[in-house]
Design brief:
mainly alpha; DNA polymerase, domain 1; about 100 residues; two-stranded parallel sheet
Length: about 100
């Protein structure tokens, strides 16, 4: 009987620890967003779904017309809604200085 109670207590403590770790993992971490108007090709490639070709396309696009909103990145050929959903929380557009 004592072993059963000890085992039950041990399992509940283990479960509580796992639940607490999971909730910490679910919390958004303090990440630095990437400004898509100033990011280098190397930085852009680190974004999920963005390879060398798309990074170059982003740089070419912003050279013609800087981004004013994050969602404008879908105007770059090859970047659609699915890619935007993957990166939207990782990018930002800071105030454009002209």
């Amino acid at each position: 009987m004592v072993i059963f109670v000890f085992l039950c207590c041990s399992l509940s403590i283990l479960y509580a620890d796992q639940t607490q770790e999971k909730s910490k993992a679910d919390e958004p971490s303090q990440i630095t967003k990437l400004d898509i108007n100033t990011a280098s090709e190397t930085e852009l490639i680190k974004l999920p779904g963005i390879g060398e070709k798309l990074a170059k396309a982003i740089i070419e696009y912003r050279a013609q017309k800087p981004f004013t909103k994050e969602k404008e990145i879908i105007k770059v050929k090859g970047i659609g809604g699915k890619t935007y959903e993957k990166i939207k929380n990782l990018i930002e557009v800071k105030e454009v200085k002209r």
